[in-house]
Structure formats: structure tokens, C-alpha cells
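To whoever picks this up:

The nightly regression suite flagged Secreted protein as changed. Nothing in the input moved, so I suspect the structure step. Input below, exactly as stored in the fixture:
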Amino acid sequence: MRNLVLGLSAVGIAVVLGWLARGALWKRRLRRKQAFFGLPDNSESLLVVNRDAGGGELMVVRHDVSALLELAAVIKDCGAHTQVVAHDAAQQSFGERTEFCVGNPVAHRRLAAHMHSLLPGVRVNTEPEPVPDRGAFQIGAERYRMEAGLTEYVILARLTADQGQDARPVFLFCGQRAVTSQAATRYLARHHEKLARKHGGNSFVLLLKVVNSQAYGPDVVELVGEVTRAAQTPLPTPSPRASHRAK
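Regenerated output under the current build:
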């Protein structure tokens, strides 16, 4: 009987210790996740999106809604709160609250402002006409053209503007099409632990390629590479061409 009691006691102690260890591990993972996203308990964040063309109020396109759902799940896991605002209604200063900007700088004013200030090495071709370079990204000396439905690119960035560890980050999801922004939010949700281990609280800029979205949607994503240095290095200003016309 004594051996049975001792055995049961040992099993009970092992169970309790295992439960405590799992709880401690879960808490450490949660704290790392909160630190990476800048979302401590009960903190506030912003989801900043495009307005759907033709929408009277705040209407969001389908893929952007899916992207917001991916981010909302992350925010909820961190025990934080969020507010969805239109790109032309967000007027807070940088670093006050964690911010997630989803869209394309052609139509997303807030995203365009962040990219102009923080990613001077990135240019997006905004030609309205259907030229081969329409929507193409230039990052440093490299150019990335879009083949709609086959090969499309999206920039995923975590930026703090060198404001220190206490500053809340801004996450940018700048896609050539709405489906690519959804792909980037899904990539972040799946790989945030790996990114946190590699980058800690530092800024980073990744270029992702979405493959064959017409068949696979946002599910097949390849990491082209980290382009932080090129994206943050200002592009050279083209020298104006002097033209002289005889009178």
C-alpha cells in the first residue's frame, strides 16, 4: 500500500510539474510574440486598409478582408485590441500604437507615406496604362515585374524608425495585387517566431513572391530574400536632361 501511495504521489507531482513547465513555456512564447508585434496585454493597435473603389463608407475588398482576419487572430492571441481605419483617416504619429498597413501605395495614402519616409530605396511603378512595368517594384538596382496570376511580389516590412525598443512597430504589407497582401499576412502569422529569433526588435524588409495565385490563391509563397539595406538606402536622383532647342 505504501508503495502504491508513493507511486501515485510521484505521478501526481510529475503531472503538476509538467503542467507548470508547459504553462511557463507558453508564457515565454506569448511574451516573445507580444514583444515582436509590440502588443502587450490590453494594448491598442490599428489595421489600416484601402477603401474599396466605389464604396460609400469603409468597404474593403475580399482579399484585404482575409488579410485583416489573419492579423486579427494574431492580435487576439497577444491579448490586445484593434481598430480598423481607412488609409485616409489614420493620423496618429509613428510608434504610438502598433500599426498594420495593408494594400498598395497607389491607393493607400498611409502606406505610401511610410514607404516614402522609411523605405526610400523602394519605388512602385504607378503607370495607369497597361505597360510591362505597371505595378513593378524597384528595390535598389533590382526590378521585379508582375505577371498577373503567375508571378507577383509583395513587400513585408517591420519598421521602428530607430525609435528604440519601447516604440511600437509598423508592419507594411505592400503587394502588387490584393491577393499578395493576404499572402504576406499569412506568411507573417506562420513565421513570426523564426523572424523574431533572427531579427529581434530590429527593422527588416522581406521580398516575397506569390506563385500561381490564379490556381493556388495566397498559399504558395517563396522568400526572394531580405532587402532591408537596399530598401532603406535612398535611390539616386536621376539627373535632369538638358534639352536645347534652336530658336
